[in-house]
Design brief:
Layout (H helix, E strand, L loop, with lengths): L3 E2 L2 E3 L6 H17 L6 E8 L1 H12 L7 E5 L21 E9 H11 L3 H16 L9 H16 L5
Amino acid sequence: MKRHYIPVTADIPGVGDERKAFVRKVIRTALAAEGVDFPCEVDVLLTNDARIHELNREQRGIDRPTDVLSFPAFDLRPGALPEPADADPGSGLVPLGDMVVSLERAAAQAKEYGHSNRRELAYLTVHSVLHLLGYDHLDEGPQKAQMRAKEEEILEKLDVIR
């Protein structure tokens, strides 16, 4: 039985089951790397720049598109996890939060950085999972370095290279 429920939806055409399965695999790998061994849920929306722009404006007051948005269910510190007691009584799953990824922005960034769309999607997905688990990069110092090191460690486990 799979311990994590990861519904991946897309509100744009052309997103196949293979891409959705890849996102689920990336999330499961990131959760395992962070020691999340209890049943949990992460909801994912794959979208375009126009929709993520709208969400960024509505939810964060930032009037521009972005690559990924993360909406954690808990206010965690890096390395701290919610308790199994935080599970939804109906489903038995701990809701970790939601992520929204702009596939349009991911493709543009992949081209800009000279790597594959797959690598960029993996990176943005790992980045978002780490935000759901309390990591942040607001400073240019230790927090950002810690988050970047975790991202690279997880991408290596996935064998996703630049």
